[in-house]
Fold each of these.
Amino acid sequence: MLSMYNIIDKTKHTERLSIQEVSYLVKGYVDGTIPDYQMSAWLMAVCLNGLSKEETFYLTDCMKRSGEILSWESVEGITADKHSTGGVGDKTTLIVAPIVASCGVKMPKMSGRGLGHTGGTIDKLESIPNFNVELSHTDFIKTINEVGCAIVSQSGNLTPADKKIYALRDVTATVDSIPLISSSIMSKKLALNSDCIVLDVKCGSGAFMKDIADATTLANLMVDIGKFYNKRCTALITDMNAPLGYNVGNSLEVIEAIETLKGNTRGNLLDLCVELSTEIVSTALNTDYVTVKDKVLDAISSGKALETFSKMIEYQGGNAKIVDDYSIFDVPRYSYEVKSKVSGYIQSIDSQEVGIASLNLGAGRHTKSDSIDYSAGIVFNHQLGDSISIGDTIATLYSSKVTDPSQVEDSLLKAITINAQKPIIKDIVISCIN
Ligand code: URA
């Protein structure tokens, strides 16, 4: 007879679990017959001893099947999804979805809200007046078919097992396990059920995976899971040793996304968006990288991707005039310029610290029920490798909630390392796993 005690004991001794045992523990935890203390003990055993590839596949599949599995039958064409393992200033979905749609691949995107120091795509979109992130199923499908992309908040009963297990992992120090992270992310991606999945696995000081070896193991495992369940699945391992782009904070990030779609930005954000879009379109359409990269660059330079973004805002009820008039966003009431106290080259910008500074300006939530100041955040004047002199403005802090934004000045300055040597700047994409 199956028993949770035996399952914990087996994982403790690195003995392999059968699919029946994995299914028993997932179902039992969701229906409440397995208590938190037993599930916590098993999760800790997994953290210490790992799971085999087969066990990870079983766990992913059982979590996927714990809720609804979406179908895109009424969407015409190939569907693609992307997932990022989370980063400060990561507004790539806002840029990549319209580019990919302009290149002929459909992107029905479900995104999340932010909690703590990382922002959420849905919060960023909600900074656009009247933007509706809760479209009915009919309107969601109509937008995808007619615009090519739509971005809504994750709703319905998708992977309830992952929700419950993730909440427990969060409070039992069992998040940082490669098989648990892989099965958590891939169960959601498989339930969302697009034809093609491209993963952006972040690596560096601001990411779950601090070194390339761990990021590569995680990416390989997730790609194997995707392929095993018949998805076209690839991953890019990307550098996360600084925030992405120049702006952090909700409306500030939407503005930077629009500027990128207008072809007005350069640097790590543009590079990553071009690479991710190229990877998604070439994987989805099975076309060579060089041809697709030209198409992606053309989608930006021709204005097609910007037009798609504007149309998506309109279909989702938002005020599309913001694309040309940023004064329609909430305007921050207070601002403060942070000046450099030393001269030299910017060596690193600790993205976690930047995320916390932005959170403290009001751009994020400390708890789920906090309200957000959409106008709050940070605009950097410089990126890694730039030279800077004493007294130059490094960044401007904005808030409508915090009357004295200079309160976060010290923590922001501590996040930025400046010294005499010009650093070697790595490419944003470290490697591709396919
Ligand atoms: N993101 C997820 O969705 N799950 C994890 O386990 C870690 C990051």
Amino acid sequence: MAQSTEKLVIIGSGPAGYTAGIYAARAALNPLLFAGTIPFTPGGQLMITTEVENFPGFPKGVTGPELMELFKAQAERFGTRVVEESAIEVDLKSRPFRVKADSQEVLAESIIIATGASAMWSGAKGEEAYKNRGVSACATCDGFFFKNLDVLVVGGGDTAMEEATYLTKHARKVTIVHRRDALRASKIMQDKAKKNPKIAFVWNSVVEEVLGDGKKMNSARLKNVLNGEVQQVEAQGLFVAIGHKPNTELFAGKIDLDAKGYVKTTPGTTRTSVPGVFAAGDVQDPLYRQAVTAAGSGCQAAIEVERFLEH
Ligand code: NDP
């Protein structure tokens, strides 16, 4: 049987992917959207967030999962076909492109890459072994389990401040471990963390090793990067908040990526180095990384696909 060719395949189901779906479906492109399966977090990073207070149109705030349900419902309302599978292989050498997913292979006249980004890990000894046994990258997902316990947060950016502040709702004490003596976080977030009596800072330090009894972590060895001094601190939790890496393994060697692995797009557009392949959201944005900017670029990508297919 001849394989049908999709006009548009969208890979990814965060704000960028679903917004591209809304616009492309309304433009009669009948998009097929691969939403991903765990560990790709269908719905994207907002699925592991609680309250979203800065998405316009929600003056009272909305939870991340609720917001993504609404995105999905709106994309489906206009006919986006959402498939709960991950794209596992792509061939972008010639059009139509080939996209292989968990249980099917499709041909596509155009593709929008919206695979987002994932949390990075510190690589400390013991970190991997104690993941989900104290070590986490998501305070809002796991913070609840640390009621009246001591936890560490690694990082000096907005995420670290946000996670630390959130964790004070549950934990007894939160210690932020940062590799320098100045925070990268915005002033408002820094002030909030510094004013919180439950938050302490360990400067110029990194986590060298996560220790525990084999079942759960109970302490960590922190190394001062200036004088090499090592101290062991008791902590039942370690939250790593040191940034994200784009989910572009699938596209390496197939389209141009920058030095950090983000998809390169022509400035002001979502065009990638391969005509007919567009990229939207965090996968091509190391700078803003907001739900609303991701949604905006998803809209842009759909409009660009429409124009590309017309010509
Ligand atoms: P950032 O890249 O801003 O910060 C990462 C932090 O981790 C830095 O302080 C960095 O140190 C540190 N770091 C990086 N690698 C390591 C390592 N291997 N070991 C130890 N420390 C390390 O990432 P964020 O996730 O914090 O923020 C990303 C973007 O999202 C930012 O633009 C931020 O403003 C935005 N954001 C906004 C929020 C909001 O407005 N509500 C909430 C969360 C994020 P160093 O400073 O030395 O480089």
